[in-house]
Write a structure and sequence with these properties.
This is Helix-turn-helix transcriptional regulator. The protein is an alpha/beta fold and 234 residues long. It contains 12 helices and 6 strands. It folds into 2 domains: 135 residues, Rossmann fold, CATH 3.40.50.2300; 72 residues, Orthogonal Bundle (Arc Repressor Mutant, subunit A), CATH 1.10.10.10.
Length: 234
């Protein structure tokens, strides 16, 4: 027995092609609409058994808001997300929003149909390898560059952060001392402490590590210095 469906995707050609393929297999497709932004209202009005919603950016914040709205207004509607090979967090976000499954855009029509039948039956419809990847990522999240930069930044005192920024700007010990109004020996001590805390052996390595982890971007708002030899703007 066919399923009452809706297909919604930003790419109208893709939506219409999938709708046509599903009609040929005996399903009743209520609509093939674009863009996905208006999907929630359309689904709530037509109340299909299963809705397929396409997205090209499953990891984008708020992308699954239509799913949340559909499940709130029409909890009996099973929602399947159609998308690219996803970041595991994208799959997790889809399920957290209330989706019944995730189907890749390049899945064969037989695979899409199996997912539809599972969703209608109240089962989770997602390929085992995608689900395994999602659980693996959530249980063992990869460190993000910004996280590492924040961790390193917290190891340094405000004065050491300024020293690191000046090192990254190419200032030598004399210029650092002049710019900060301290003795060259004190500037040299600060530099050595920065290198030790960052676990690097040279100023060049310290500058490269700070840039790679995003530490310099985070440090910028915290330390606005004027290069030695220049007058601050008033």
């Amino acid at each position: 027995m066919g399923v009452r469906l809706m297909v919604v995707d930003d790419h109208r050609l893709l939506a219409e092609a999938l709708a046509s393929a599903l009609k040929l297999r005996g399903h009743r497709v209520l609509a093939a609409a674009a863009p996905a932004a208006g999907a929630a209202e359309l689904v709530i009005t037509r109340a299909p058994e299963v809705c397929l919603i396409g997205t090209a950016t499953p990891a984008e914040p708020g992308i699954f808001d239509p799913v949340v709205k559909i499940k709130r207004e029409r909890p009996q509607v099973a929602v399947l997300v159609l998308g690219p090979v996803p970041n595991p967090r994208g799959i997790a976000a889809a399920f957290a929003a209330g989706a019944s499954g995730y189907v890749r855009h390049d899945e064969r029509i037989e695979g899409v149909e199996r997912a539809i039948m599972k969703a209608r039956a109240g089962e989770a419809a997602v390929a085992p390898q995608l689900l395994q990847g999602a659980f693996s990522e959530l249980l063992n999240p990869a460190a993000q560059p910004d996280d590492e930069g924040q961790r390193l930044l917290q190891m340094l005192t405000p004065r050491e952060v300024e020293v690191l920024v000046r090192v990254a700007d190419g200032e030598d010990t004399r210029l650092i001392a002049a710019g900060m109004g301290i003795a060259p020996s004190t500037a040299r001590t600060h530099v050595q402490r920065v290198l030790m805390k960052l676990g690097v052996g040279s100023r060049l390595e310290a500058a490269a590590l700070a840039a790679r982890t995003g530490l310099l971007d985070r440090a910028g708002p915290l330390t606005q210095h004027t290069p030695a030899g220049q007058t601050p703007e008033l």
